[in-house]
Amino acid sequence: MNSYPQTYPQKPVEEQTHRVQSLTDCQDSSLYLKDNILKIKINKKKINIKIKNKKNLLAIPMSIVILTISATTEAKAASETDLLKLYAHSRIVSMEQFNCFNALITKESNWRIGARNGSHYGLGQMRNPKYGRLDGFSMVDWSIRYIKGRHGSMCNAWRFFQKHNYH
Question: Which residues pair with 126 in a beta bridge?
Answer without folding.
Answer: 121
